[in-house]
Design goal:
With about 120 residues, this protein is mainly β. The protein has one domain: Jelly Rolls, CATH 2.60.120. The chain has no helices and nine strands. Strands 1, 2, 3, 4, 5, 6, 7, 8 and 9 form a nine-stranded mixed sheet that branches. Strand 2 and strand 3 form a beta hairpin.
């Protein structure tokens, strides 16, 4: 599996079609940063069929929305099948991983502020 990440942000005040920001690449997971700040970030990713993102933990809540295809997401050993338009919040400190039984694209938003309370 190849993992490509383009950390250059999108141009501000320029309209775009979110599903067209990123293309599928054979045998790869590709990510593109839309906006990145110390308080959080928004990223769009594409997964080729058969790819997966290894289990990980994040110290912050992450909102994920499927913008193309269908994804399999496992959060704390519970499986979710997310279709086009579906969204879900992955809780902070939850073990999670993604599997691409078919190609899919997702938008993920991480909010890093608000955990000080």
């Amino acid at each position: 599996m190849k993992n490509h990440n383009d950390s250059a942000e999108l141009e501000k005040s320029t309209a775009h079609v979110v599903v067209q920001i990123i293309e599928y690449m054979p045998k790869a997971v590709v990510s593109k940063t839309i906006i990145k700040r110390t308080t959080g970030n928004i990223t769009v990713s594409s997964f080729d069929a058969g790819e997966e993102l290894a289990e990980k933990l994040s110290p912050f809540d992450t909102y994920v929305q499927i913008i193309d295809g269908e994804a399999e997401l496992i959060i704390n050993a519970k499986m979710y099948t997310l279709k086009l338009g579906d969204g879900i919040i992955i809780p902070a400190h939850a073990r999670h991983n993604f599997n691409a039984n078919e190609q899919f694209k997702m938008l993920s938003t991480v909010i890093k502020s608000g955990y000080e309370d």
